[in-house]
Amino acid sequence: MNLLAQATGSGRTLTFTLFLLMVAATLVITVWARRHTRDATDFHSGGRGFKPWQNGFAIASDYMSAASFLGIAGTIALFGYDGFLYSIGFLVAWLVALLLVAELLRNSGRFTMADVLSFRMRQRPVRTAAAISTMSVSIFYLLAQMVGAGALIALLLGIKEGQTFLGMNADVAANVGIVLVGLLMIVYVALGGMKGTTWVQIVQACVLLGGAALLAIMVLVEYNFNLSNLLGSAADASGAGSAFLEPGLRYGTEVPGDAIATMWSKLDLLSLGLALVLGTAGLPHILIRFYTVPDSKAARKSVNWGIGLIGTFYLLTLVLGFGAAAMVGAEAITAQNPAGNTAAPQLAEVAGEGLGGSATGSIMLAIIASAAFAAILSTVAGLVIASSSSLAHDLYNSVIRRGTATDREEVIFAKVAAIGVGAIAIVLALFAQSLNVAFLVALAFAVAASANLPTLLLSLFWKRFNTAGAVAGIYGGLIAAIGLVIFSPVVSSTPNSLLGEGVDIAWFPMSNPGLVSIPLGLICAVVGTLMSSESQPQRFATLQVRALTGAGSERAVEH
Amino acid sequence: MATTPTRDGPPPDVAEHEIAALHDDPRFVDLKRRLFRFIVPATIAFLAWFLLYVVLSGYARDFMGTVLFGNINIALVFGLLQFISTFGIAWAYSRYAAREVDPYAQELHDEIHYGENAQ
Q1: What are phi and psi of A281, to 5 degrees?
Q2: Hey, what's the signal peptide range on this chain (chain B) (predicted)?
Q3: Band of residue A322 on the pLDDT scale cut at 50, 70, 90
Q4: In the CATH scheme, what is the code of domain A3-436?
Q5: Whole-angstrom Cα distance, residue A65 to residue A71?
């Protein structure tokens, strides 16, 4: 039952082989895409020629990260129902993207989120703010994924304390994992651009969904497809009984005898829910995906594909999480990884063994390990292309060169930016390894919900909105979200904090800033607008007609 | 603009003022109304339903823990209903947009790019 003891010899070789196969396939795609990437539209938006189903798979791949695969399965395995609650926020959020953002963004923008934000504003201040916000969200998200990848490599290769594999001990293997993931994402983006990244993501979505579906079916077979029995076994094994199937073990926990702590804890749950549901439609790497299809109808269809795939995936993680609780058990999971991140791979091994002996166990472990790497690689690649596009298109071309850079210059800068962002992410991840950075995903969502979404919606729907409002809204939301987290228990005052127990600057009682920072971002945007008299009714009219009818929108390129 | 635009290939370019001119056209106002008639109530509804679910998860745990049958409780059923309502709203919106929005948007798009008499 112990992953470390089992994942040796042939199992390790198999994991390695499958992983190398997937990497080889994605590199072939990248080399192919490089030959078909000629101009800026190819690099930033993949030529806008993707079919809705293709973009839907890529959207799902961007979104299904280590946090949503290993993280949610692990949270369900250890805390039961609350992990499910998290995934529901992640899913419902897509309705904001579908109803309010995807089509209008596709029609009015070109390459980046800032295209829409700056449409009727002064270019330089708005694009600078949008680029800073894009970079913040992307770097937070990247760090969480890459630190996770490092820990995972050591665990999946089954390297114990004091053991070595190919001459590496666990710490070296984690470093190698981070560097490897970093180099791969740089290669995918710098060589393949959006075309290569999208196809790589499509392949990786299939690996991830296929692996998760196979494992979920194996769990369900074990319980004769009776969900109630599965839940019952999970609740019994957890030791928490029926509370395991109810909300409250992880989020919004009751603090006995302390009404105020309980109140904050429950408001923290609301705050998390708000950031999850409003954050998705403000994530830059999700937004730029809507530009890869020919028109707004295709953008709508691709979101529908995404919703279907992501929803199915979260239903699978529900089975995997409760399956791990029932079949692996909390004790074995926390022994491997206190946060529960290895619950899914451990379940794969146990379920495989149950069906066909230890060889099947090793095969299933190898499949799920590859699926986990697919989840990480596809998400980090999406984040790198979002940041390099924003740096090249917004900061370099529009702000520094005032729009005079040629297509070729912009693409070269974007490639250099991809290498730069990747290198920075690798170095930061190597330093952040020993820290508890799981909160960074929630922080990325909070920044997206506080800084990006309000300004995006006001740009599209509020006539009076102007440069001062957009700039105030972005910086206000960004500073509020990051600032409140710095002064929260996430950073100091508890044993699990980033800085540990010794430092205490935590005057803000909630780990999730959304409940305060989202309204604050909105207020900044409104007040900023009203304090400036700038108004461009003609540009607003153009933006709205363009957004709703697609007139004048960017077309697919034909080569 | 090209003198005799054709429908093959990308549509001809248009000047910004030609696009902006449509903003006060009654047909554009109608298009906006058609879109908002769905997205505004739908957004309010799913956000309210999701927040209700989160609030119940935080403050009405006895209710959420009510067992319906076997090991299935209200919390699980409400969670699964969030999935179903998300799929349902996405489906309903796509149907609505295809019937009530897209044809009108296309008509205005074509008029801007190909001129009044283009059919």
Answers
A1: -75, 5
A2: none
A3: very high
A4: 1.20.1730
A5: 9
Helix (DSSP H) and strand (DSSP E) numbers for chain B: 5, 2
Give A172's Cβ-side CA count (13 Å radius): 10
Structure confidence by residue, pLDDT tens digits, A151-182: 777 767 666 556 666 777 777 888 888 999 99
Burial of A55 (0-12, 13-18, 19+ CB in 10 A): buried
- Specify if B31 maps to a domain: yes
Say whether pLDDT at A19 is over 90. Answer: no
Of A175, A165, A170, A237, the closest CA to residue A1 belongs to A237
Backbone angles phi, psi at B67, to 5 degrees: -80, 130
Tell me the pLDDT of chain B (119 aa) as tens digits. 444 445 666 777 888 888 998 999 999 999 999 999 999 999 999 999 999 999 999 999 999 999 999 999 999 999 999 999 999 999 999 999 999 999 999 999 998 988 865 44
Number of domains, chain B? 1
- Does pLDDT of A391 surpass 80? yes
H-helix or E-strand containing A268? helix A259-279
Domain that holds residue B83: 16-114
Top residue of A92, A295, A302, A555 to mutate, by most chain B CBs within 10 Å, is A92
Q: What pLDDT sits at residue A8?
A: 53
- Number of separate helices (H) and strands (E) present in chain A: 23, 0
State whether B90 and A303 contact (CB < 8 Å): yes
Is B43 part of a structural domain of the chain? yes
| Helix H or strand E segment including A386 | helix A343-389
Please, what is the angle between helix A537-549 and helix B102-114, to 10°?
120
The reply to whether residue B83 touches residue A270, judged by beta carbons under 8 angstroms, is no
CA–CA dist A273, B4 (Å, integer): 54
Question: Which residue on chain B is closest to A250 by alpha carbon?
Answer: B58
Residue A157: is it exposed, middle or buried by C-beta count within 10 angstroms (0-12/13-18/19+)? Answer: buried
Q: Which residues are CB-neighbours of A482 under 8 A, at least 6 positions away?
A: A136, A443, A447
Domain boundaries, chain A: 3-436
How does DSSP classify residue A242? G
The verdict on residue B11 lying in a domain is no
Pair of tokens at residue A457 = 């919606």
Could you give the CA distance from residue A453 to residue A282 in angstroms, rounded to a whole number?
5
**What's the pLDDT band for A292 if we cut at 50, 70, 90?**
very high
Dihedrals phi, psi of A409, to nearest 5 degrees = -65, -40
On whether residue B5 sits in a domain, the answer given is no
Structure tokens belonging to residue A138 = 């992307």
Average confidence (pLDDT) over A280-302: 95
| C-alpha closest to that of A281 among B100, B43, B45 | B43
Inter-chain contact B87–A246, Cβ cutoff 8 Å? Answer: no
In this prediction, residues A398-419 reach a mean pLDDT of 92
All residues at 6 or more sequence positions from B33 whose CB lies less than 8 Å from its CB, including other chains: none
Report the alpha-carbon distance of residue A540 to residue A462 in Å, rounded: 9
B62: distance to nearest CA of chain A, Å?
Answer: 9
Task: From residue A178, give the alpha-carbon distance in Å to each of A26, A183, A289, A341.
Answer: 18, 9, 25, 16
CB-CB neighbors (< 8 A) of B64 in chain A? 246-247
- Which of B115, B85, B70, B101 is closest to A227 using CA atoms? B70
Which stretches of A433-449 are DSSP H helices? 439-447
Out of B58, B72, B75, the one facing A269 most closely (by C-beta) is B58
Q: Are A307 and A91 in contact (CB under 8 A)?
A: yes
Closest to A150 in 3D by CA, of A538, A435, A533, A528: A435
